C-alpha cells in the first residue's frame, strides 16, 4: 500500500503524488467516490464497460440537470444529442 499526503488548493484541486501516478498517462479520467470522510480514486478505464457507461451517463445527466436549474440548458436535435453522447 502506498501512502501520500497532499493538500486541497483554493480552486479545489489536488495533486496525486508522483510515485502514485507513475502508471497514469496525462488525460486519464479518474472516478472519485466520496463515502463519508473517505475518498476513493480509480481510473475510469479500469471499470467494467457497462459500469463505466452508467457512470458517464449519470455524470452527464447531473450536469444537464444543473444547467436546466440555472436556466442555461440548451436544446438539441435528437441526432446532435446522440452524437454528443457517442463522442465521449
Number of helices: 2
Please give the order of strands in the largest beta sheet. 1-2
Oligomer: single chain
Largest sheet: 2 strands, antiparallel
Q: Stretches where pLDDT falls below 50 for ≥5 residues? A: none
What is the percentage of strand-forming residues?
Answer: 5-15%
What features would you describe in this structure?
With 88 residues, this protein is of the alpha+beta class. 36% of the residues lie in helices and 14% in strands. The protein has two domains: 45 residues, Ribbon (Pemi-like Protein 1, Chain: D), CATH 2.10.260; 42 residues. A two-stranded antiparallel sheet has the order 1-2. A hairpin with a 2-residue loop joins β1 and β2.
Amino acid at each position: 500500500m502506498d501512502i501520500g499526503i497532499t493538500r486541497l488548493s483554493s480552486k479545489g484541486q489536488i495533486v496525486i503524488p508522483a510515485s502514485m501516478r507513475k502508471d497514469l498517462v496525462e488525460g486519464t479520467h479518474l472516478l472519485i467516490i466520496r463515502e463519508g470522510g473517505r475518498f476513493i480514486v480509480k481510473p475510469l478505464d479500469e471499470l467494467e464497460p457497462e459500469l463505466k457507461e452508467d457512470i458517464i451517463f449519470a455524470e452527464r445527466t447531473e450536469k444537464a440537470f444543473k444547467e436546466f436549474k440555472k436556466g442555461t440548458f440548451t436544446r438539441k436535435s435528437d441526432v446532435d444529442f446522440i452524437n454528443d453522447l457517442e463522442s465521449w
